[in-house]
Here is the input.
Amino acid sequence: MHFNKGIPMSLSLVHSRALLGLEARPVCVEVHLANGLPSFTLVGLAETEVKEARERVRSAIQNTGLEFPGNKRITVNLAPADLPKDSGRFDLPIALGILAASGQIDARKLKGYEFAGELSLGGDLRPVKGALAMSLALARHQEAGRPPKLVLPEGSAQEAALVPDAEIYRAHHLLDVVRQFLPGGASPELLDGWSRVEPLALQPQPAYPDLADVKGQAAARRALEIAAAGGHSVLMMGAPGSGKSMLAHRFAGLLPAMTTSEALESAAVASLGGRFTLENWAVRPTCSPHHTASAVALVGGGSPPRPGEISLAHRGVLFLDELPEFPRAALEALREPLESGTITISRAAQRAEFPARFQLIAAMNPCPCGYLGSSLRNCRCSPEQVARYQGKLSGPLLDRIDLHVEVGALMADELVNTPPGEASAAIRGRVVQARERAMLRQGSSNQALEGQAIDAQCQLDAAAAKFLNTAATRLGWSGRGIHRCLKVARTIADLAGAATVQLTHVAEAVQYRRALSVKP
Here is the structure.
């Protein structure tokens, strides 16, 4: 074996993270400088935007007055090699690796830090997606005894600092980072560009649109209160202009304030989708995609996988207006997430799982023209057109929606003279009390009850059981439909403060499980 001891070589290691779904997996950026023909090679299953880092890093180092080893053979390896890497998040660690390998910064001082950030040609640091997911991954390392230290651009650092006890540092420019790791210690110059970020506190109760703005609609308001108390899904059917959209956009204000854990989950998904802003911290999202949205837009997809609308609505509300107008494939893709609260996106080379525990609020017209059964205008649709329109919704999907409610249009004098409805704050108070009863009794929301827990928590007396059996037989309910009716009845009992599910609670729940019927 022969060794070329005369050839000088230098190697540095810098740590970062790659995103795969909500996971932020560790990546080691290995930089090797050697003599030979000048070149800059980047390997490690990098997407196009990562490979373009070669030009960004070269220009950033040169334009900041640092020395780029252009006369060397530069090899950058992003390990592990079988993990896909995307976006410009590796610009900063690659630049630091080159500077450390060339002796311009102290490679030993980089130990214990992780870096992410996109570089401009002038060396400015630009925000990256998924900063919160990276911070959550570091927090898990902290539990194992490894203190998390993460260096991010200004636009991403505050987001990552939302994780409790995370040690996050912000930097504006490549030089801000370099001066912290100089061989002789941090330079006193430009230290204002480097600082530790303090987390933001949770808001007591964010400002949502108030349900008091909606006049009348007592049945729909009651259905939304039950849905908020038990975590149930709702389908509202009514004529155009009857208030379905107003009701849906005010539903988030009926839900309890988010816990820190829920806020972090929601913000982490929003960060992956590039939608997170600090103003939305601890605000329950309401996602309302257009009815032309594809199945991939709703459930997520792509390569690497990205979250869809159902995941971006995690811990919040997914509002689907004009439900029958959505593509059939998109609606059928909702069936599994409505049951499991997660969505798994599988591709040939990778698999990603995203949370999708949302509350579905859907709205539709009763017929193509929208005025079937309306007292304001006559319907011009034939029975066949009505049947075809309502038939766009499959039975399995409707079976998974707990509450079906009709929203009637108000007459002009009712709309003008009816006083404002009950405020969201008052309804939210009852919702919080009902949820607390459920949590003390069973440790979960009523909608999340499964198997034997349904039998244990939704026991009926003889009269209530007989009524439910008769209704289920006449309406042709499936086993799922019966269980969902029981869970809605349990929620109604919690709102009433009743310890057991009684006949009146079951009777009201049955009213919300009636199948959509054609009334030409």
